[in-house]
Amino acid sequence: TRTTLCVSSQVGCARGCVFCATGKMGLLRNLTPEEIVTQVYLAHRVAKEHDMPEINNLVFMGMGEPLNNIRAVRRALSVISHPHTFNLSKNMITVSTVGTKPEDIRAMGDLPARMAWSVHAADDELRKKLVPTTQHRMAELRDAFVDVLTGTKRNMLVQVTMMEGVNDSPEHARQLAALLHPLRGWVKVNLLPYNDTGVAGLRASSEEATGAFRDVLVQDGYFCSVRKEEAQRTGAHADSCVLSTKGAGASGHARAQRRRPDE
């Protein structure tokens, strides 16, 4: 049995993804390496206290864009992966990014972690609408991942948040397949049901549309999975991280929580 911990790298986020609750907050501040490591420590303690399986999978898919706080993330990873601390191998850690810019992506090459790319749309115009801070063509960002992976045995995850009538058509799937062609053999695609964050006009794609999207990718030779609905029912998506300042007091401390779709 695998227990996965979703780790945050910032309080809030500056990337502004239109479907993301965290993006609505804007960036409040970066987390320190110590704060990032403390998330792992506390989660291990809670898991032990509640007789849960040991945490053996970390995903940097909580609040924030890891590449916008790369120094702290790199230092935290050096501690988390150290044999005298949590001793987690790079195969047990995934760092997810929207792909800020090519040079940032190339800087991920020495991280003791797997990479995940939140694509959401392969078409440059649509990608810009969904992630307004996008400054580079998708092909440029992809080529940076190719540079990192070339000559290695590593693989990476590509993620798409599926939104009805926005990015879920077979044509969108064909565009994604074409974009990822130079990464063929390295990538696995994961389709995520949109988690309702209260944005007017946005709804999760139907099972039929998601299945048709997946079929296009599979027929083109890609491994493609669909996230289970359990995450959607519990609000356990990276795009549903919000901040509650209740009880924060003068110290400014706040606690991150998962917002359920009906809240």
Quick recap:
With 263 residues, the chain is α/β, with parallel strands linked by helices. It is built from 9 helices and 11 strands. A 7-stranded parallel β-sheet has the order 1-4-5-6-7-8-9, covered by helices on one side.
Walk me through this protein's architecture.
With about 260 residues, this protein is an alpha/beta fold. Helices cover about 35% and strands about 20% of the residues. It has 9 helices and 11 strands. It has helices at about 20-25, 35-50, 70-80, 100-105, 125-130, 140-150, 170-180, 205-220, 230-235, and strands at about 5, 10, 25-30, 55-60, 95, 115-120, 155-160, 185-195, 225, 240-245, 255-260. The strands form 3 sheets. A 7-stranded parallel beta sheet has the order 1-4-5-6-7-8-9, with helices on one face. A two-stranded antiparallel ribbon has the order 2-3. Strand 4, helix 3 (about 70-80) and strand 5 (about 95) form a beta-alpha-beta unit. Helix 2 crosses helix 3 and helix 7 packs parallel to helix 8 (about 205-220). The radius of gyration is 18 Å and the shape is globular. Mean pLDDT is about 90; it is low at about 230-235 and about 245-263.
Question: What is the secondary structure topology, with strand pairs?
Answer:
Blueprint: E1 3-6, E2 10-12, H1 21-25, E3 27-30, H2 33-49, E4 55-60, H3 70-80, E5 93-97, H4 102-106, E6 114-118, H5 124-130, H6 138-149, E7 156-162, H7 170-180, E8 187-193, H8 207-219, E9 223-226, H9 229-234, E10 241-244, E11 255-258
Parallel strand pairs: 1-4, 4-5, 5-6, 6-7, 7-8, 8-9
Antiparallel strand pairs: 2-3, 10-11
